[in-house]
Amino acid sequence: MATSSGKPHSPASGEPFDVLIVGGGPVGASAAALLEAGAKRSRRPLRIALLEAQRPAPIAPDAPLDARVSALSRASERILGSIGAWQRIPRSRLQPYERMRVWHESVQPRSADVLEFDAAYAGEPNLGTIAENRLVQTAALAAFEAAGGEVITGELSRLRVHDHHVELETSAGAFACRLLVGADGARSSVRESIGLFAETSSYRQTAIVANVRTELPHEGTAWQRFLRTGTLAFLPLADGCSSIVWSIDDAAAAPLLALSQTAFEQELRSQSDAVLGALELRTERLSFPLRKLTAHRFTAHRCALIGDAAHVVHPLAGQGVNLGLLDAAALCELIVAAWRMREDPGAQSVLRRYERWRKSEIEPVALAIDGFNRYLAHGVGPLSRIAQRGLALVNRTQEVKRFFISRALGLDGELPQIARRPPSAPAP
User: Fold this and answer.
1) Of 400, 98, 132, which is closest to residue 223 (Cα–Cα)?
2) ∠ CA 54-297-300, rounded to 5°
3) What is the pLDDT of residues 327-381, one digit of tens each?
4) What is the reported pLDDT for 373?
5) 0.85 cut: is pTM over it?
6) pLDDT of the residue at 127
7) Concatenated DSSP letters for 278-298?
8) Would you identify the CATH topology of the domain 17-95+130-201+291-375+410-420?
9) Is residue 11 pLDDT above 70, yes or no?
């Protein structure tokens, strides 16, 4: 990273952007749209740009569902609804789920020892919605552009941080901004360029993702089984199929991926305890290594990190995109509030408040997820046996279940205003 007090290189209009976001995935695109909407409400326009290396191809309404999906929380639905992105996703491709059933391999999948969460316990219509990642991304990008935002197609090659601005060299040209937001994923070029250290560690697991057709209906339920070699989840899809997310030890993943389709289907049925009957693959099997990442700082001078650029957690709780969207909403809320008071969007006071806020929310969630992975999916000692019996105990304690349901809905903790407010409520 280089710093100086030199004069910025300006975009074509002759003025630097107020905020430039690198990375147009669901989190980055939503952050851009949130800023655009917030600036309009404040009646003080912000010059916002989004740099994205490659825009996703649109999905035809009748195209098969993608294998890469996310379980979006109620808080995420409200964030996406506030920018008009949720309304752009076809209802026919969304699958709300009303229940979650979680069990350890030592018990039967439909016994009293299974931990079941039901939306009715919390007076909610559902616990969340399964949506294709690409649809969420394209909807957020479209919402940003519809609000007047500028999407620049290009890749970051170099940046320099100065006292009052950040310079960027990209494949689309040179730009300057008062605040740079890195939303460019776990291998963030922004994070690396500004010299922020990230602690990374391997879970020594591989995630296998695919869509399957099941003999029995998914019942609008998310099913998750903890195994000695990892975690197997079935997420319900709008076409009646299910998306599997199988987080399995590396040593077991390679031979599993080498199996023929028929042999893989048989092994999947066995490892799921045949909870949904016979299974048939509907997509190819995708796989990727699982790693944990935590940036020791979420901000630097005139720079902030959101989403996977700041933190990556194990997928067993389905919290990755949800945490990232909360990052985006929190940062944008602080920026817009400062902008209304005619403060610099890249002011250190704004960035410090964002970092304290989000680190205090993310750290306990990451710790809990690691505990689930260690003691429920792999453990064999006394603590693991206690954790495994704890599933049944939680199932019999309504107050504890309500707490976990509130967490799953994303409605617990210190939330940005937009996540606390139902989509139909007026913006402040």
Assistant:
1) 98
2) 75
3) 999 999 999 999 999 999 999 999 999 999 999 999 988 888 887 777 666 655 5
4) 74
5) yes
6) 93
7) SEEE-SPPEEEEEEEEEES-S
8) FAD/NAD(P)-binding domain (3.50.50)
9) no
Residue whose C-alpha is closest to residue 178's, from 87, 47, 286, 276: 47
**Burial (Cβ within 10 Å: 0-12, 13-18, ≥19) of residue 172:** middle
Contact 328, 31 (CB under 8 A): yes
Going by the DSSP 8-state scheme, the letter that residue 59 receives in this structure is P
Give yes or no for a contact between 379 and 387, defined as CB atoms under 8 angstroms apart. Answer: yes
For residue 13, give both structure tokens. 């209009």
Q: What is the pLDDT of residues 394-405, one digit of tens each?
A: 555 666 666 677
- Phi/psi for 89 (5° steps) reads -90, 125
Contact between 73 and 329 (Cβ < 8 Å): no
Q: pLDDT exceeding 70 applies to what percent of the chain?
A: 88
pLDDT of residue 120: 84
> Strand pairing partners for 312?
293
Q: Reduce the secondary structure of 71-116 to three states and give it as a string.
A: EECHHHHHHHHHCCCHHHCCHHHCEEECEEEEEECCCCCCCCCCEE
Candidates 370, 366, 347; CA nearest to 358 is 366
**Tokens of residue 193, six digits:** 């360029």
Q: What is the pLDDT of residues 81-101, one digit of tens each?
A: 999 999 999 999 999 999 999
